[in-house]
Write a structure and sequence with these properties.
The chain is mostly helical and 386 residues long. Helices cover 77% and strands 0% of the residues.
Amino acid sequence: MADDPPASPQLTTSTRDPSEIPTVRLAAPSLRSLLRIVLVVVGCVIALYLVWRVRTVVRLAAISVFLALAMIPVVDTIDRRTRVPRGLIILGVFVLMFAFVLIIGYVVVPSMVKEVGQLSHNAPQYARDLRRNATFRHYDNRYHITPKLVKDARRLPEVLAHLAGPLAQVTVSAFSFIGQLVTVLALTFLMVLQGRDYVEMGLQLTGSRQHHYRRLIIDINHAVASYVLGNILISVLATVATWIVLSLLGVPYALALGFVVGFFDLIPLVGATLGAIVVALATVTVSFPVATIVWVGFIIVWQRFEDYVVQPLVYGRALHVNPIVTIISVLIGASLLGILGALIAIPTAAAIQILLTDWWASRSEGSAEPASPSSPAGGRAEPASN
């Protein structure tokens, strides 16, 4: 009996169980596909290596872009209302920024030096004043707090002098900082002066999607500028409020401490708390614990007022970043660039969020397109009647 010939495979879709999961078999990649993957991986590695080698230049360019985006709204407003050349307007803004920094340094640094010297000199008197409080005296007798505080206060001028470091190291660091500052200012000046021309040249390369990318750039610029200007405005309000409260409490150098709170308030998440701690230490020398309690109560109320009233009014709807993304971005920025990285972390995260939202919207629109021209709604096409 001869063997039956093998039956030819037939596709039987009518009798297949609908709940049955089809078997997917992956074919081995071709040599050309493997070569393409290897070239892409090698290209990415080389690109990352080059970026790492020029990371200082990339960092300075990123800072310049951030400053340019923050200055463009101010420069544009002045440019529309005056006939002064745009270059002179930019230079004027730079001069105002430097003058503001010098004024803060002139007010804060001497005041802080005098405050530290006074605290070190009057430390025993402050310790005696603290011991007049019965509760504090009870814990001081047990843990010997005041002797330790007096000892540390006596050593404050020595510690500050030690932190200054050798003069040669400070000089080298100053020259390096000045060189980087000049580079950032030059790049920022060119970006603000001719930034629109550069953007237009880049948009012309995008073809039919030019309008789409233009809208993305406008949204990012609006988010970054709103954050920077809003953050500065909130810090100014914090400075004025701190100055008024400390003046009423009779705390010395109230304006200098107000500038300290305003500067720390620029730093997201922890800045306001750090500034409040510095001022709380200064109130101890005035009237403990009344002045300290009043200050702590004020700063708690002020922070709630900032979070729920001032920030929504200043930022509006231009900047909405997820709290988890905010914390992670601030930590990453602080680890990369220190205080400056923490300052630019949130607007950078906002810009990335805008790009990702647009990419996801474009992807969703692409997946929602109909499978065939005869069914625009994506449903099954009905057969045409004869």
